[in-house]
Amino acid sequence: MCLSTERKYIRGLRPPASSRNYHRSSILQNARPGRTKESANGYYQGGVFSVDGSDFPKKGTESVGVGRQYCGRLGKVENCQAGVFAAYSSAKGHALLERKLFLPEQWFDKEHRERWKKCRIPKGTAFKTKSELALEMIQGLRREGLFEAQWVTGDDYLGRDSAFRNGLPEKMLYLLDVPSNTRVWKKRPRIDIPVSISKMGRHFGKARLKKGEPKARSVSALAQDPALQWKTVDVAEGAKGMIRARIARIRIVTSRAGLPREDLWLFVRKSLTDGQVRYALSNASEDIPLQELIRVSMLRWPIEQCFQEGKSELGMDHYEHRSWDAWHRHMTFVFVAQLFLLRIRHRLKKARL
Q1: Which position has the higher pLDDT, 82 or 198?
Q2: Degrees (nearest 5) of the Cα angle 104, 106, 111?
Q3: Domain range holding 159?
Q4: Are residues 168 and 259 in the same domain?
Q5: Under 8 Å between Cβ of 258 and 209
Q6: Considering 269, 287, 305, which residue would you say is the last residue of a domain?
Q7: Is the pTM of this model over 0.70?
Q8: When you count CB atoms within 10 A of the terminal residue's CB, does the N or C end of the chain come out lower?
């Protein structure tokens, strides 16, 4: 497995997990699939970046970043560590690429300063939201230029964050989940800016909707429109056969502070298995084919498979390290192991052919 990275980094994989004497970023970059021969052959072209969180329940209070916060794995507020991860997914494979540990706000108060030293948190580390951590990862991956990803997909905490959407690299497209109560317009409403005149000149008031213009509606309400055109597609192959869903899209105008903002696509996916409905926003052009949105939406979920494989097969959640460096190093090992398995699968598939 060590040989799957460049030889000069093999020694760096050997120090204890708590050691700082290793080139974490260098190991990670050189282990990524973008460095492999498969990439040169187009194996990873046409893929997307996916961002999602993965949480790790903890009983103690000494591990870096641990605290009472929402734990997705348990579905409730619990004592845990929270990580933000980025993956690359294409029709021929998927792998985790980057990770950042989320530090809750309480870790920046005076009571936690002593724990900063014990956990070896780098000086100058500032509080960042999960969306900000996700944006840093995407910007970094784009700068590296190892992947031809034009799309970003992610959970609804990213979709409802306009700062994340607007901060993505230029010309990057997104398909991001949003909550069902996200409010939008089907057509851009007219706005009015009151003007008053005094001795001091003109004064412009706060923008507001013109009288008679409709208020924004929830995306779930728009999805009930009988005029909406639906298409039934095969999403994936499950244990009991093909998983199918109904797909629809509609041009909408987003709402912020009750006023119209961006012209985007609303993408709706309704599972025919359990009836669950998901909503996503996309900044793709008006003339983008529906099939392309469907393709990208299917590549949204392989990151979940990465988490499942990591935790069930690769010990992603089996660690007792407490320091900042140790946590990131452990995740690096998981990524390298996952890439090793990915290469083995590809070679076995070629051998069968």
Answers
A1: 82
A2: 140
A3: 1-176+289-353
A4: no
A5: yes
A6: 287
A7: yes
A8: C
Q: 43-67 pLDDT, tens per residue? A: 445 789 999 999 999 998 899 999 9
Q: Do 130 and 39 belong to one domain? A: yes
In a shared domain, residues 33 and 123: yes
pLDDT at position 113 is: 87
Are residues 142 and 214 located together in one domain of the fold?
Answer: no
Task: Give CA–CA dist 50/94, Å, rounded.
Answer: 10
What total of structural domains would you count in the chain? 2
Contact in structure between 156 and 175 (CB atoms under 8 Å): no
Last residue of a domain, one of 287, 313, 328: 287
pLDDT tens figures, 84-130: 999 999 888 899 999 999 999 999 998 888 999 999 999 999 999 99
Distance (Å, rounded) from C-alpha 271 to C-alpha 15? 47
- Do both 102 and 186 map to the same domain? no
Do 145 and 279 fall within a single domain?
no
